[in-house]
């Protein structure tokens, strides 16, 4: 396989929160890898902006340490030095006036201007105001904002209004790194690029669909934030919702930002209200480790796990349930979409032959790839015995070593910002529609004072999540990395 690297136009990228954890772990190492692969032009510049008082050399030392820690492959001293030469730094006060004139003088004309808001949402408005007041942006400037996009519908609307005061919707890039994953994009390629699947992608042939994002880690150092959000706000409302939309949406008229996002929005608006009986919430708990201790709140009723049955009220999916599952401190770290097809309407084989239904599994992590389970005859002379075997397309095995080293999601998405391509970014009305569906569910929990079920760390979640599936005579796919 030959990988094509298409360079982007010259740019000035300002990273607000340039000394923060996200910049250190993801953004700056990702930009270095894009430079190493030849996608970043020589005229490109990256400017760190934060409250920390340091000069450009200090910022370069900070970035060198980040690259030493988080870049293993492609770590070349000459390339690192050349990349660091592209860096600059300006100390700015997001809520005050300090540093903004210096930042304005640093920006160049005639290049793409992009501003990455790698800070808390509380500072989005202040930064947008300062950029406007100091004339640092133009009509082609782009801003990148990290989740959370609000805490509920009201705050999401307020945040959108704040950004819209100075920027057009075409300039706002709401980044969800899940949409930058190679397999997520391949989901669209498999559906809309192959005649094999799309005719079967509906309620007539699909029994149900499972979407799972499980993590082995706990809440870690995010306890204070996580306890105010929980799995519903932190994962379902954005990450799982996006995977649901891409799986369920109608074919867009073309691969175009608004065409794709229009179809995703239709899915969200077609979601039926999910009742209490179709939701299971959990908290990890054992003698050695407890969610309540990790968040330092012994009375917390915030969920670290959620499983739910979701229905889409449209012609394509009427009667086909979608099962969503996500949790902390689970058995395996797995993100996958499983499309379970119906069994043949009539079997010519005897009942004990072992015939079952086909499954298409799309693995986002780890080991990105896909496999389709098909039924074949078991080899041997023992009569007609059927077994299920996977047609496996693990990218690293099927496409060679280059596929095993695909760009990180942040790398791809930041380059899309420079190109001006919003296809893999969420639109404002899409975010608000997701909150409009999520809020009533959370309000119902609050009203009922609903308490999560305990589950053992390192398990597959509370037993009640299994019962949710067994009630429908179905089973969760086993968590395996």
Automatic annotation (TrEMBL):
GO terms for molecular function: glucose-6-phosphate dehydrogenase activity; NADP binding. NADP(+) binds at residues 17-24, 51, 147. Residues 188-477 form the Glucose-6-phosphate dehydrogenase C-terminal domain. The active site is at 239 (proton acceptor). It comes from the Bacteria. Substrate binds at residues 177, 181, 215, 234, 328. Its EC number is 1.1.1.49. Gene3D superfamilies: Dihydrodipicolinate Reductase, domain 2, NAD(P)-binding Rossmann-like Domain. GO terms for biological process: glucose metabolic process; pentose-phosphate shunt, oxidative branch. Pfam families: G6PD_C (PF02781), G6PD_N (PF00479). InterPro entries: G6P_DH, G6P_DH_AS, G6P_DH_C, G6P_DH_NAD-bd, NAD(P)-bd_dom_sf. Belongs to the glucose-6-phosphate dehydrogenase family. Catalyzes the oxidation of glucose 6-phosphate to 6-phosphogluconolactone. This is Glucose-6-phosphate 1-dehydrogenase. The gene is zwf.
């Amino acid at each position: 396989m030959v990988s094509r690297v298409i360079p982007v136009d010259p740019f000035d990228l300002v990273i607000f929160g340039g000394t923060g954890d996200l910049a250190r772990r993801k953004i700056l190492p990702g930009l270095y890898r894009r430079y190493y692969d030849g996608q970043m032009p020589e005229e490109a510049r990256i400017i760190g902006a934060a409250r920390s008082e340091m000069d450009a050399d200090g910022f370069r030392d900070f970035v060198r340490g980040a690259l030493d820690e988080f870049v293993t492959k492609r770590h070349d001293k000459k390339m690192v030095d050349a990349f660091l030469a592209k860096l600059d730094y300006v100390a700015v006060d997001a809520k005050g006036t300090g540093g903004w004139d210096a930042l304005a003088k640093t920006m160049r004309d005639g290049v793409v201007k992009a501003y990455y808001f790698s800070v808390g949402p509380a500072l989005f408005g202040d930064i947008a105001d300062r950029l406007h007041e100091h004339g640092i942006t133009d009509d082609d400037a782009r801003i990148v904002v990290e989740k959370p996009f609000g805490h509920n519908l009201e705050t999401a609307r307020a945040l959108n209004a704040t950004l819209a005061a100075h920027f057009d919707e075409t300039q706002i890039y709401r980044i969800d790194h899940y949409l930058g994953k190679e397999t997520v994009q391949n989901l669209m390629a498999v559906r809309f690029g192959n005649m094999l699947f799309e005719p079967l992608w509906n309620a007539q042939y699909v029994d149900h669909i499972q979407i799972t994002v499980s993590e082995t880690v706990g809440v870690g150092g995010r306890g204070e934030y996580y306890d105010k959000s929980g799995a519903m706000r932190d994962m379902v409302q954005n990450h799982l919702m996006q995977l649901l939309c891409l799986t369920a949406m109608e074919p867009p008229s073309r691969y175009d930002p608004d065409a794709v996002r229009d179809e995703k929005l239709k899915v969200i608006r077609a979601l039926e209200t999910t009742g209490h009986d179709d939701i299971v919430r959990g908290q990890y708990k054992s003698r050695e480790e407890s969610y309540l201790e990790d968040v330092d709140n012994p009375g917390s009723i915030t969920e670290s796990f959620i499983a739910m049955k979701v229905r889409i009220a449209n012609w394509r999916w009427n009667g086909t349930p979608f099962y969503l599952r996500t949790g902390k401190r689970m058995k395996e770290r797995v993100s996958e979409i499983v499309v379970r097809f119906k069994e043949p309407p009539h079997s010519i084989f005897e009942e004990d032959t072992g015939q079952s239904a086909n499954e298409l599994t799309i693995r986002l992590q780890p080991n990105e790839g896909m496999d389709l389970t098909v039924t074949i005859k078991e080899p041997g002379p023992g009569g007609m015995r059927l077994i299920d075997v996977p047609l496996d397309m693990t990218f690293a095995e099927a496409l060679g070593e280059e596929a095993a080293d695909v760009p990180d999601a942040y790398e791809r998405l930041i380059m899309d910002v420079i190109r001006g391509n919003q296809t893999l970014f969420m639109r404002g009305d899409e975010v608000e529609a997701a909150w409009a569906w999520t809020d009533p569910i959370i309000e119902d929990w609050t009203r009922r004072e609903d308490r999560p079920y305990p589950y053992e760390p390192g398990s597959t979640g509370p037993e009640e999540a299994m019962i949710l599936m067994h009630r429908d005579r179905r089973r969760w796919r086993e968590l395996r990395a």
